[in-house]
Amino acid sequence: xxxxxxxxxxxxxxxxxxxxxxxxxxxxxxxxxxxxxxxxxxxxxxxxxxxxxxxxxxxxxxxxxxxxxxxxxxxxxxxxxxxxxxxxxxxxxxxxxxxxxxxxxxxxxxxxxxxxxxxxxxxxxxxxxxxxxxxxxxxxxxxxxxxxxxxxxxxxxxxxxxxxxxxxxxxxxxxxxxxxxxxxxxxxxxxxxxxxxxxxxxx
Length: 203
Hints:
By secondary structure, the protein is an alpha+beta fold. The chain has two domains: 130 residues, no CATH class; 53 residues, no CATH class. It is built from two helices and 14 strands, in the order ββββββββββαββββα. The strands form four sheets. It has a six-stranded mixed beta sheet with strand order 1-10-9-8-7-6, covered by helices on one side. It has a four-stranded antiparallel beta sheet with strand order 11-12-13-14. It has a two-stranded antiparallel sheet with strand order 2-3.
């Protein structure tokens, strides 16, 4: 999943903070301001190998989440990454507040971290809802006076993706089940055609 970009996060812990996600691999704090600036690199070997809480100005880990402040690749400022434990990619990436010296990033703290976790969790929840809606569809049709529900469940297998097309009676019993292409378009018209053909496998 590509990291979501947070926008318009309100002030947290008296600072304007918009969260961003982080990963457990090698982390580089790269200044894009001048190519001659030195790259800052923090490797996994520099971090504790456990999921124990860690509370630092630019690195905060707790409750299954890690926040890391990095250089913002889009401008002269800073960004913060949020990654959930066990995931390889950031769930959230966004700009981070400049500190009082207008040079270094504002240090992470408990209040800001809670806001970041809440926002990142909401992003993941919305993503899961969207994914579920894409993979599981259903329509209701009338067949000889009975309300029949037709469902399409896509199985996104890397090697052999497919979809299960089912017809369910008003009592929850399965009337028909065929395997179709994951590209099958389920709508009321296609469901009615399937029923009119006695639920034979669509071409």
